[in-house]
Amino acid sequence: MKDKIFMIAFVLVLGSVWTTALVGVDAWTSPIIEKHTQAKQRASILKALGISYEEGNIDAAFAGNVEKSEDGGLEVYRSREGAIAFKIAGSGVQDQISGVLALEKDLKTIKGITIVAQKETPGLGDRVFEPETLARFKGKVLFPEFHILPPGRASKENEVDGVTSATLTCQALQKILNAEAKKYRDAIKGRVE
């Protein structure tokens, strides 16, 4: 009986020590993680808007070039030149795709796209998010509807060539871009034009 009481007391003490340690580590690391996450988000917004920055100077570049506001309940980031950026997210083939879409001040023309998180198939679907692929989107028009077509078929201002063997990921990105752009454009229409 004495051994059982000792065992229970030992487990309770050890559990309490580990719980306290985990809570302490969480309290210590949470602000660090939050700061890193914020810097990563700001860097994505700056990159989508085409604003250059240095790694150690993201906050200053952001503060000097971008203004955050809420339009229609949605977060919108405006550059000094009048372009806007906003976070995008939606379902990919494998998991969520999230990033930032920036539009010129006409609210129709793509200024830039950055992808923050995606888990598409390595070597296939993830090729859609490579910088040289996303660079093709710049200057394309999103409205009335944007299309990502099989390679070699894009000919209109609202079309871009997709990536061979990544048809489903291209379709998922097309759906995300159209849905998110319409949602944000409807929320801020008339305030920027």
Notable characteristics:
193 residues; 4 helices
Description:
This protein is of the alpha+beta class and 193 residues long. The protein has one domain. It contains four helices and seven strands. The chain has a five-stranded antiparallel beta sheet with strand order 1-2-3-4-5, sandwiched between helices. A two-stranded parallel ribbon has the order 6-7. Helix 1 packs across helix 2. The longest helix is centred in the first third of the chain and has 48 residues.
What does the radius of gyration come to?
23 Å
Query: Between the first and last Cα atoms, what is the distance in angstroms?
Result: 80 Å
Largest beta-sheet details: 5 strands, antiparallel
SSE series: HHEEEEEHEEH
Summarize the structure.
With 193 residues, this protein is of the alpha+beta class. Helix content is 42%, strand content 22%.
Tell me the layout of helices and strands:
Layout: H1 2-49, H2 58-65, E1 66-71, E2 74-79, E3 84-91, E4 96-103, E5 110-117, H3 131-134, E6 147-149, E7 159-161, H4 167-188
Parallel strand pairs: 6-7
Antiparallel strand pairs: 1-2, 2-3, 3-4, 4-5
Helix pairs in contact: 1-2
